[in-house]
Every structure is written in C-alpha cells, then in structure tokens.
Give the backbone structure.
Amino acid sequence: MHRLLDILASGIHDTKNQLFSAESRIAASEAKHQIDLSEVRYAIESAANRLSRTLAAYQLMRHGARLAIVPSIVADLCAEVALVQQHHLANTGITLNIDCQALDDWPLDRDLVTDMLNNAVQNAGRVARREIRLSAIEQGDELILRVEDDGPGFSTIPPTVGTGLIVAEKLAALHRRQNRQGSLHLSNGGPLGGACFELRLP
Amino acid sequence: MTDYSKKRFLVIDDQPQARDALRTVAQTLGAFTVEFASNYQDAIYRIRNNSPDIILCDYMLGEGRSGQQLLEELRRFKLLQDETIFMMVTGEQSYEQVVSAVELVPDDYIIKPFSPDKLLLRLDRIVAKKNFFADYYQEKRKEEYARAIALLEKKRNSEAGRPYRFEILRQQAEVLLASGDSTAAETAYRGILESHDFPWARAGVARALHKQNRLTEARQEIDRAITSTPHFFDAADLKATICMAQGEHAEAQKILDEVAKKTPRNFLRKRLLAEAATLNGDSEVARTVMAEVIAGDTMPGAVSTEDRLALARSHVNAGDKISGERVLVGMREAEVQNLNLAEQASFAALLAICSPEKGKPRFAGLRPALLASDLGTTARLDVMRAALSVTDNELADLHAEQLMAGPEAKKTFSSIRNQYALHGREKDIREIQKQVALKRIRHEEAAPATGD
C-alpha cells in the first residue's frame, strides 16, 4: 500500500545500522587509544537523526502520523538532550544549562519530543553567544519544555518558519489528552534575552 | 552508577556486524562477559541455561521472528525474572508504535545509532527503577498479591514514586488481574485511561470485562483498542477470544487467520486459531494448524498433553479416526499415567470415539468420576460427545446441561447442538436448553445477576 514509504524506511533502517556500526567502532577506538572523537560521533548521530526526521516529515505530510505515546520521565529526557549536545556546544564555547522541575512522568512521544528538543538546541547553538537553557516545568495540566538562548532572537515575530518548524508544530498538536492538545510557541526576550522555543504538552 | 564489569551481557542479533557493534558498546561500558546469540532458539537456550543480567536484543531477528516475540515467549515460560534487564535495540522507528500499544513491554528500547554513553544512561535508569520496585517484585513472584498491592500503594503515595506513577498504576492493574480480582482490575485500568487513552490499558479493561463475562462491553473496548492501533496483535487475540465466548466462531477464526499470517511463528496464536477453527467446524484448518504447532514449536516443554489431545480432537472432527487413534496411542506411557482428571476424561473419550475397542473400557471405567466431577469446558465437550456415541444418554445430558448452564454456554452451544443433531437428538437438546433457561430465570428472580 505504502510501497514508496516502505522502500524509504528500509533504506533508512539499513543506513542507520551502518552508522551504528561506524559509531561503535569509533567509540572503541576512543577507549583503546584514550582519544576524544566525540565530534565525529556527534556528526554521525546528527546525520542519523536528520534521516529519521526527514522520514517522519515525509510520513506526516503524506500519510498523517501516528504518535507513540509512552509515559516518560521528563528529567531523563532532558538528560539525554544534554548528553548529546552539551559536549559539542562546549567545544564552541556555549554552555547548555538544564533546569528540570517536572518531577512526574508524562505521557508523550519520547523519541519525537527528544528529537524536537535536540533540534531546537542545535538551532539555538547557531546563534547563542554563551548560554542556552533547557527547562521543564509542570504548569496547571500542561508540561512546558523551553529552549532559550542569549542570541539576537528571531528577526520577526511571528518568525518566518521553515519546514522543520511546520512539522514540529504539527507534531506538537498531535499530542492530545481529553480535549486538550499540544502547541508550539516562538517568542523573543526570555530571561536570557534571545529566542525562546516553547513546547506545551497536555 | 552501577558497576557493569561484573554483569553478564547477552547480545541477540542475527547480523554479525550488528552483533559486533553491540559487543563493542557493551565492552566500552566495562562489560567483561558478553555472550552472543545469533538466533531465536539459541537465545532461548542461553537464557534458560544461565540467565544473563542484561539482554540487548535486536528487534528484527530474521526467519519471521522478532525480539518482541522472544520477549513474550520468555515471559510465558517464566524465563525472564523481573530483575533481568531486557533492552530492545532497533533501527526502526516502527518499534515505538509497538511498544506504545502492547501490554508486554521490555524495560526499555533504544534506537540505533546510539553512543555507549547513551546506553549507559538508559541502563542506569532501568537499574534505578528496578531498585525502586525490588521488594514488590519479590512479593509478586511469590504470588503474595495482597502484599504486592500494599507495597505498590505505598510507592504510589511516595515522593520517590513520582517518576513512576504510570508504571505503578500499570503494575497495580496487572497484579489485580493476576490475583483474580477482575472488578478491581477494571477500575484500575479505567483510572489509567482517564489520564491518557493507552491501547494497553484499553485492552486491560477488555480483559477484565471478559473475566467478568461482560462480553458485549468487553467486545466494545477491545474494538476501540484495535481501531486505534491495528498492529496491536495481542489485542486481536483477545478480540478473537471474546468472539469465541460470544459464540461468534467464524469471526474469531477470520481475525486469527489474518494475524497469524503476519506472525507465522507465533505458536500460541496458532493454538488459538486451531481452537477457533474447531469451534467454527473448520476441522481441516484446525488439524493443519495443530500439526504445525506440534512440529514447529520447538521450545522445550512447549508442546503439551493438551496440544496432542487437541490434534487428536481435530482428526476426530475431520472424520479421520485412524489419525486420531494414532496420536492418542502414540502418547508416551509416562505422559498418559500423569494425566489430570480432565485430560484423562478427554483421552478416554476421544479414544472411545476413534477406537471403541480400545477406548470403551477405559471410558466406562471413568464413568463414576465423570458423573461426579467438575471438568473443564473442553473435557466436558469430549465426554458429552463420547457418551452420545456410546448412547450413554444420562452422561451426555448431564454434561450438556452443565455446559449450557456454565459461563461458556455461548462458546459451546453450536458444538453441543451439532453433536446432538448428529445422533438424531435435536428435540432432546432443545428440551435441556429450555430447562436450563427456566432454572436460570428462577435463580435470577431469587438474586439478580450481573453481566450478560
């Protein structure tokens, strides 16, 4: 039925397997020779994430997406973003601070939300001067995930958004609970003075 | 942080390159002992012989097997203790869809590619969770359900339990169902659904309703779970089981046939398909499928006495008494001597039908026990049928009546009617049915019953 989708998915699946093989060998070399090749691994993981994101976007635009909602620990989610991004950002002189005050587990599409946050942090990394902050709080019956930076902010509000953000907006809205749904908010001038990417999930 | 150097790892993957990658990652975590399994059977063999601490299992295992199926089978044979870590490794985003829907989930899953650090983070997390639930796992294993539930209740109200709210609720519902309190289990699952419409919780409600014999409601709930997640195969099994309980055997067979095609090596599902086909009067499918189960389910101890009796029964249904007799006579002496009463009843009944000469004396010898004892549904049907064939009407009518008065009346009705029709006793079975209905009305007037 979705033959093209199957072909794409299987090609991406094989590619990711090969990338995993490459990454694990690099990790082994790092351990063996006591060297730091984390930037190489970062590039590999970013490439793999990019592939997944492209497939997800295609799927969403062509067939409509179905989320995979699992109860997720918000602090763990933030820790994973930090694990992927912190070291890389530090190499460019930017500090990523995590401030997670959401203590309960939350039903959400874990991999999708992690990817959205990774993407937001990556975008912030291009414009931030010294600091990016990822924060999580529970407010009323919503979980609010924020990525803020101390860069110049969006040039216009509302900003002109590319495909990535359009997809992110749609995916946020797919998070539904009773009659509420998720949303994405972009603004300027948070506590760090730069752009603010805010994901609200019911 | 946990010391992984003393942990025993098992890596399960059919691709040599991927296996090496996983081993490398495990070794980077300091793992000293990393074993491999290249296929499904090998994995089961290794886990059975010497259970590892941490299992890293690829989702796609080749030969029509998946890591999910392995996980289900390990749980089914109680080869996987709650303390063992089972991590699914996958390059497929589609596994997320599976894990978000099904009732039986691994401790976690991780998507390739990933760094050793990421795996470490995930494993540390699982260890923390398992420590949090450690005392509960012990009570659950001992089947001390009241204590297990009390522990969960305490955890639910603790600050440390906040990251595990849903896991606690899920465990509570599962333990309530396992302890036989299906009303409380239903309430627990409905409580989860108030937070979010998880397919596994919806299926849990259906399961609890089925146990309460509230079949129409159970059917509605399971239909909702399937509509939202068509790839949730266990829900299809449950739906088929509910259909059978409602007497809709053709529908049950159709559902199972479709799903079984997608999961050709899931033998539990095939057994269910054989049962549906038997009830539906499709004896050829039933015996083909049962033969596949017996030949294909190579897990040690998986093929049971019940399976061999089912195969014999399917031959009898197909009118092939010679094959039926061969199966029964071919059972090992030790196995026959260790049959419980229900199995003895089925064995003697089926043999009496296949080979009156060999079976009748045994069947006659059991008669007093068969008149006095409460057998299961399947054995009752066999006994009723054999009794009809040896024109022991008293014995046949007794079991027919008890089947029709029992909770599985709708499931067995067409089989009973067909057997009586075969022996020219349609009028008698209608009379028995009437008597059962009258008794029920009188009983309900005395004490209003619940359910349908």
Q: What stands out?
A: The radius of gyration of chain A is 18 Å. Chain A touches chain B at residues 9, 13-14, 16-17, 19-25, 27-28, 31, 41, 44-45, 48, 52, 55-56, 66-71, 73, 75-76, 79-80, 83-84, 103-105, 107, 109-111, 177 (CB under 8 Å).
